[in-house]
Write a structure and sequence with these properties.
This protein has helices at about 165-175, 180-185, 190-200, 220-245, 250-260, 275, 280-300, 390-400, 405-420, 425-450, and strands spanning about 10-15, 25-35, 40-45, 45-50, 55-70, 75-85, 90, 95, 100-115, 125-135, 150, 205-210, 210-215, 220, 325, 335-340, 345-350, 355-360, 375, 380-385, 460-465. By secondary structure, it is α+β, with helices and mostly antiparallel strands. It starts with 10 loop residues before the first strand and ends in a 5-residue tail after the last strand.
């Protein structure tokens, strides 16, 4: 157990205990001890007594919701217990408390079930109680909470990065501070700090040279990000004007291609992929800004496979990882992914935070890397069949005269990177810069009227082998 040493921690029990619905009195709940809870995986000690002549199977659920300074992680944990007839035991449900500042609400629920594999139903619940814990930042930490640190899309969902302490930790390690100094500043147990460091090292995010820890991805300071944003703003001005001008010939090219029977002259022909090409917004946002220009700037000729080999919820994007200071204003908002190969592939694009539902156990070894997510029903993407070979003439039209622009901006960003202390411009730098550029470019295309915004800019594209 990792206890906070000095951080103000107040536990408030709300008076709202639910009683047994079916067999009232079968299980008696005694003292509930939440004293000493701090950051890390903790236990809540509860006394239970089985008053019946029957074996009882009890399931505990602990749900945590954090309202932090600027991150709001959530965790759920479940445990199963067996109580003999007329036995009194002490159970210890676990709760994972992330390193965050603000207010954590922990809800403990107990269920009397027949089969532990059954769904937990309201009538099997015999105890429910919320508790509130407050974590107050020290004076030494407050300055580090003024500017928000952000990561690539979806990385902030990963339990390693979804809390404020990890972001402070990486910042302080970058300043050369030791684990002991960081623990003293955060008024927490040094063992907790060292555990977080060890986890990040095991994951390959940190490296150690003597007593100095360094991130294995670029940490972009606010000053560097502000200078980079000026370059992105200038590039997006030129790109949006150029793409906007090229869009004037878009439907002329469509007419030529349909006349040549390259694809059907039918904007509703979903199966052939023609319906996509009659809609400039998804073509520009995804195929032009990311599939073509993003690839050219970030990986040159190699495919832009940002989330390849990882689940979208985990988002272990080692090669493309970055950390930027200064809040969302200095980071792009686009999500783009490409999976698959030449004959069968899929792409996803969202102009804002990707709205999906992650499996509660997405970060465990048992279910990792198996697509353990689903779309939120109320936020389904717009689906398209795509064939980039069909779209190539349109992509070429909209990206003509852009190569020199990308090359110039690449050199400017290289200088910006080295001027701020990096010995090279990492792929993470390029990904950060391009997300910012693409976000600004698309916004300017919509604002100028060169491109009409659809109801929502959230798309899923699929290419299947049987189409060609």
């Amino acid at each position: 157990m990792y206890k906070l040493l000095k951080t103000s921690l107040v536990v408030l029990m709300l008076l709202s205990v639910s009683s047994v619905n079916a067999d009232d009195g079968d299980i008696l709940v005694g003292d509930v001890d939440l004293s000493g809870l701090g950051w890390g995986v903790q236990t809540c000690n509860i006394e239970l007594e089985n008053t019946t002549d029957y074996l009882k199977f009890i399931v505990s659920n602990t749900d945590l919701l954090f309202e932090g300074v600027y991150t709001n992680p959530e965790y759920k944990m479940k445990k199963v217990y067996i109580i003999e007839p007329h036995q009194k035991i002490q159970i210890a449900p676990e709760v994972k408390i992330p390193g965050n500042y603000g207010t954590a609400t922990i809800k403990i629920s107990l269920y009397d079930v027949i089969d532990t594999l059954d769904a937990l139903m309201p009538w099997s619940k015999f105890y429910e109680q919320p508790f509130i814990i407050k974590f107050t930042p020290s004076d030494a930490v407050l300055p580090y909470l003024q500017e928000r640190v952000t990561f690539p899309p979806r990385v902030d969902v990963n339990p390693f990065f979804n809390n404020e302490f990890t972001r402070i930790l990486l910042t302080l390690l970058g300043e050369g501070k030791s684990a002991e100094e960081i623990a003293e500043m955060n008024e927490c147990d040094p063992k907790y700090v060292q555990l977080r460091i060890t986890e990040l090292m095991d994951k390959g995010y940190l490296t150690r040279n003597g007593d100095v820890y360094q991130t294995r991805f670029p940490f972009i300071s606010k000053e560097e990000a502000e200078d980079g944003k000026k370059i992105a703003d200038a590039l997006s001005d030129t790109l949006s004007a150029l793409i906007g001008e090229n869009l004037k010939s878009y439907f002329t090219v469509i007419d030529s291609l349909t006349a040549l029977k390259v694809f059907p002259n039918d904007s509703n022909d979903f199966i052939s992929g023609a319906s996509l090409l009659f809609k400039p917004a998804p073509v520009v946002s995804t195929l032009v800004l990311w599939y073509e220009l993003g690839r050219k700037f970030i990986t040159r000729t190699a495919p832009l496979l940002i989330y390849n080999g990882t689940d979208i919820c985990n988002a272990e994007v080692y090669q493309y990882m970055y950390m930027v200071d200064g809040g969302a204003f200095l980071n792009g908002s686009h999500f783009y992914s490409f999976f698959g190969g030449k004959d069968s592939y899929s792409m996803m694009f969202s102009d804002n935070h990707l709205l999906i539902e992650c499996n509660d156990k997405f970060n465990t070894k048992a279910v990792k890397r198996r697509g353990v997510w689903k779309y939120e029903i109320e936020n389904l993407p717009e689906f398209f069949i795509v064939d980039t070979a069909f779209a190539r003439p349109l992509i070429n039209l909209l990206t003509q005269d852009t190569d020199e622009l990308l090359a110039t901006s690449y050199k400017q960003m290289m200088k910006n990177s080295t001027d701020h202390g990096h010995h090279k411009m990492y792929i993470g730098h390029r990904y950060w810069f391009w997300n910012l550029t693409a976000t600004l470019t698309l916004e300017k295309l919509f604002k100028s009227g060169a491109l009409s915004k659809r109801q929502k800019e959230f798309y899923r594209f699929d290419k299947v082998k049987s189409l060609r």
